[in-house]
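Task: complex structure prediction.
Instruction: return structure tokens for all chains below.
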Amino acid sequence: MLNIVARNRVLMLLAVMAAACLALGFAAPGYLSAATASVILSNSLVLLLISLGTMLVILTRNIDVSSGSILGLSAATLGMSLNAGVSLPLAIALCVLTGMAAGALNGLLVAYLRIPSIVATLGTLGLYRGIMLIQTGGRWIEDLPQNLKALAGGIGFGISILTVTVLGLFILAWIFLRRTRFGRYFYAVGDNRDAAHHLGVPVRRVQFTAFVASGACAAIAGLIFAAQIGFIPNQAGNGVELKAIAVNVLGGVSLLGGSGSVAGVFTAAIFLTSIDSALVFLKIPAFWNDFIAGAILLIVLLLDGRIRLLIDRRIRARRYAVHARTPQGGGATGKIADKALLAEASR
Amino acid sequence: MKNILFRWEAALFLMLIAELAVFGFINPRFLNVGNLIYGTSDFVQIGLVALPLTLVIIAGGIDVSFASTIGLCAIVFGVSNFFGVPLPLAIGMALVAGALAGLLNATVIHLSKIQPLVVTLGNLYLFQGAATVLSGAVGAGGYEGIGNFPASFTSFGYAEFLGVPAPLAVFLGLAAVLVVLLHFTRFGRAVFLIGQSAEAARYSGLSVAATQTVTYVITGVCAAIAGLVMSAYFGSARVDLGAATLLPAVTAAVLGGASIYGGQGSILGTLLATFVIGYLQQGLQASGVPSQISSALSGGLLVAAVALRHGSALLADFIAVARQKRNNRASAF
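Output:
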């Protein structure tokens, strides 16, 4: 039972979410509707993308806390070039390029100058926000052209082009991480950097790529933010990086690198967003939001940690049990049994 | 002598002098001693949390929840004041709230064995949420402040103590206590050893959990002190009082020489770094630079400082290797 819980993180999360939704459906009729689902999905787009980018970085055993500022910086680039009369495709390209350049600086600092990622990205968090403010002169960017806002409009079934883009990116990331050699390198680097290096994995290039990808994701999230909100405030994206890390932890991505799945991140982001909307339906005052989100995150962390410890202890107990059963030791049968049990334990 | 000169703190001190000289050159009025001393009240709260944070980082942990602990403790004080609790008791309650917040951090970290960054990140939300709920409970709704403090409390924000403003005096006093605690006690040595290697510390009979717990509790209490000082200075307690201290405080600890991997750092370094960061912001304002640019510069400063430290370490390695090679060649002949 314990192993099933620990190994099927996504299924567990889905089960909890389904139970919570059913309970909410009873408590607040009208919650279980297609309209709610569509609102939750479109509300979670920004968080989904930031979490995806952060996940790529965390997989390589680094962390990126600058994505909120990259979001703001690229959104500002997008808004200012649009208002200067640049066409929409070109402005979007500029926006994504800004994000990638910002990610590349992070990658340069971490992968090539070997600055601890938490320190480097904390620094760039302030740096990028400052550059954004210099760029905009501290003013909000308003009067965005209609064709940008139209991107957030529905194209049927309550979804927009943006939703399709985000889902497409998730599928791409899933294929990349599961099915390509370079994608597998991400897990190898995060799991054991030295071993990966000795196996011929281009460790630095993998880390660098992760940061650039994270920057690109944050830039597209900035595009979505601008299209959905219709204006770009100075504090756009402020604090979303912390939420994205929370999503990753909730979704079963190990902060020690090397394990985690795209599906887990997707489910966890939807889960966290649906909490916010559930509070609205339950008519709980908005000032409870942070408290409840924090409490849920903390409980999940505690449970997750305890389960992991228990499993570790069980595996160790099995290993010691082998030695206890064959006190004479050294016998061929003992060794075989030992191996079989070890194989079972590590499965 | 050489050891003193080549310490990181000496470099920081030079950085501070150079910074003051540059800003004094741009705007001579900046170098007014009164200005410099009283200007500290605007950034002393960064140091108040950066000092204990240095302890946590040296012991191999990290705490980011202090940013909302500041707000939470200020609100606890404000709410108890609102209900007519006498001043000393209200202050005591705020301090206890801070200690409990730190204790919660440490307990969850040790029960779950999950990285401190994640746990304290969760608590960053939780404490902020708790503060918002508490302030909502007395009708201060959301992000409005709680005011109407007794005059004896608010006057503290502008009081003087031995010729220096009271907030600065509190900061220097705290620094003195922590210098003794970290550099001259058994506990301090344990903090360093645990940061170097928690395993080695455990095998040599130190209680890793207890020592780390103490560092988190100290951080909580100091965050409460920062919250109280800020409430007195601004005349109101708000949920988001500490939000702006998160990045500068971590910057101060890291710039001050604390290694994010644990086992390295000093209180004096963090103290100097606090002044470097604080005067950088004020100096830029005095030179007519918009506050947006100063925020970019302080982010850039963190990156540059760390790059410099890593770069100089790499360079030192490189020189040592080159010298060794030369010696080898010399001895071969």
